[in-house]
Amino acid sequence: MVERTALGVLALVVFFLPVPAAAQSALRVATWNIEDVGAPGSSEFEAAASVLVRIDADVLALNEVQGSADVAYAEALATQLGYDHVIVGGAVYGADRNAIFSRFPFVEAASLDARDLSGDPDAKDVTRDFVRATIDAPGGVFDLVSMHWKSGW
After folding, report:
1. How far apart are CA 34 and CA 61, in angstroms?
2. Are residues 83 and 133 in contact, defined by beta-carbon separation less than 8 angstroms?
3. 135 to each of 81, 83, 87, 100, how far by Cα in Å?
């Protein structure tokens, strides 16, 4: 009888112990004001690739992707580093853009300018588009917004 009771108590304890959540995986997110990606093969491009390999972020926000040529270079960098999901924002004043690279799929992604954010069709009060991505990562879906605020003038 004692053995049966002990087994019953043990079964209840095991049954009612909190079950740990599925093993949570770390999600590495980084941001970098890169200023200029540089052409593939250039010292700038190779230096950026080297740094980003060491950081090994799952999701990366880049600021100051400079101009349409640099957008193509950023996309080449993303491909080289295994980021299959990329959004690059539009330029508002000047050529600088913001970008998000992700190893996990985008549920949704958008480049948002002042008109999008305020609802005013004449709004021109941000210097670079915000980039926003809803990312389906292990452990859940999350939203990331990347913006590089312009200082000075």
Report:
1. 10
2. no
3. 18, 13, 12, 10
Integer CA distances (angstroms), 101 to 17, 56, 98, 118, 148, in order:
40, 12, 10, 26, 15
Amino acid at 152: G
3-state secondary structure of 10: helix
Q: Tell if the pTM clears 0.85, that is, is over it.
A: no
Contact by Cβ (8 Å): 88, 60: no
3-class DSSP assignment, residue 53: helix
Show Cβ contacts of residue 142 under 8 Å, excluding neighbours closer than 6 positions. Answer: 134, 135
Pairwise CA distance, residues 124 & 90, whole Å: 13
Q: For 107-147, what is each residue's pLDDT tens digit?
A: 999 998 888 888 888 887 777 889 999 999 998 999 999 98
41 CA to centre of own chain: 24
Distance of CA 30 to the CA centre of its chain: 7
How far apart (Å, rounded) are the C-alpha atoms in residues 92 and 85?
Answer: 23
Position 152 scores a pLDDT of 61
